Amino acid sequence: MAGIYIHIPFCMQKCGYCDFYSLVGLSDKKEFVVALCDEIRIRKEELQREPIQTVYFGGGTPSVLHIKDFENIIASLKEVCDIAELLEFTIEVNPDDINLPFLDDLKRIGFNRLSIGIQSFNDRILSFMNRRHSSSEAFNAVEMSKKAGFENISIDLIYGIPDMTLAEWKKSIDKAISLKVQHISAYHLTFEPGTAFYKKLKQNIFREVEDKQSIEQYNVLIKAVTKAGFDDYEISNFCLPGYQSKHNASYWSGYSYVGLGPSAHSFAARTRRWNISDLKKYINNIKRGEVFYEQEILSDIDVYNEKIMLGLRTKNGAEIRDLHSMDKKMVQLFNEKMQKNIMLKNVFTQNGRLKVCKDKKILTDQIISDFFVV
Ligand code: SF4
């Protein structure tokens, strides 16, 4: 088994760009933790099916929970499965939630990797995105985490932000590198329906950055992180040698995982399952023994599209033999698309794998769309 993902659906305020499922405030926290522990027991068989290698607390904002809450959740996990030998145990934290005693406690209860949601080291941009923290809090959060003994720290950054200059972006990257973290994730801002930013975009309050700027910002990022010794192992993820996110790498390799908590996704063989994105319903349905998830069986086309999407986003690429094991019609379609994209110098083959050409990385999503079968 790839691992366990646990979704903590609370935030103290909503960031302008975010469409992850979360509620502002902690009013249902107690009932949520009880329901989550019940879900762990309900899904005992799934959790025991394969050895668990990684556990990832994401959200929402896991760092708004109390240490006692984590202890309860971890105790429930230990009741049903073996998590004594985890390769990676990650928690996402927000810079303004953490202090040294809290970090010491996280370490004590077993977390060995922190993913810090920094997004930018520029106060104007942080406030534009409605983040709660300042640039100096972000800086202190990393320093404190190191002091607490964390040796595997990832920080998140966002680019493609309206009105962010190239100089501002460079400064954020340089700051991130100067902090000597082991991993950086950098995502291009997207405007998702339902978010405050999407609304503002539709009202013409601001505009998306032009492709030229996106490419410039991505190129600056790649140049800086690779110069600093980071491996661009996935289109948005960069690590020092040996510090790939094991949890995410196994998603990309198509291993199975169990997602717990509202809106969390699970995957095994050809089944994709997702918990309802409604905290009250999630709590009540678990309490009443009613179904709290939906699921679908992936078609051949879904499986093919997923392999393409996950594979081509990584430096390692997609395994051609694996794609050739699909039915005849799919293989024919894939071969045609592969030949066309090789001719266009978008992709190349190496050791049986199909990879995106270095100078076309910024176009990865477009290249993937071209490979998709609908
Ligand atoms: S980005 Fe993180 S902190 Fe902000 S609303 Fe989304 S989940 Fe909450």
UniProtKB/TrEMBL annotation:
Keyword Iron-sulfur tagged: yes
Domain Radical SAM core intervals: 1-231
Main location: cytoplasm
GO cellular component entries: cytoplasm
Signal peptide extent: none
UniProt keyword terms in alphabetical order: 4Fe-4S, Chaperone, Cytoplasm, Heme, Iron, Iron-sulfur, Metal-binding, S-adenosyl-L-methionine
MF annotations from Gene Ontology: 4 iron, 4 sulfur cluster binding; coproporphyrinogen oxidase activity; metal ion binding
Biological-process GO terms, alphabetical: porphyrin-containing compound biosynthetic process
Localization, UniProt: Cytoplasm
PROSITE patterns found in the cross-reference section: RADICAL_SAM
CDD domains linked to this entry: Radical_SAM (cd01335)
Pfam families the UniProt entry points to: Radical_SAM
InterPro entries named in the record: Coproporphyrinogen-III_oxidase (IPR034505), Elp3/MiaA/NifB-like_rSAM (IPR006638), HemW-like (IPR004559), rSAM (IPR007197), rSAM_horseshoe (IPR023404), rSAM_sf (IPR058240)
Function: Probably acts as a heme chaperone, transferring heme to an unknown acceptor. Binds one molecule of heme per monomer, possibly covalently. Binds 1 [4Fe-4S] cluster. The cluster is coordinated with 3 cysteines and an exchangeable S-adenosyl-L-methionine.
Family of the protein in this entry: Belongs to the anaerobic coproporphyrinogen-III oxidase family. HemW subfamily.
PANTHER family named among the record's database cross-references: COPROPORPHYRINIGEN III OXIDASE, RADICAL S-ADENOSYL METHIONINE DOMAIN-CONTAINING PROTEIN 1, MITOCHONDRIAL
Database matches in NCBIfam families: hemN_rel (TIGR00539)
Protein's recorded name: Heme chaperone HemW
Native source species: Saccharicrinis carchari
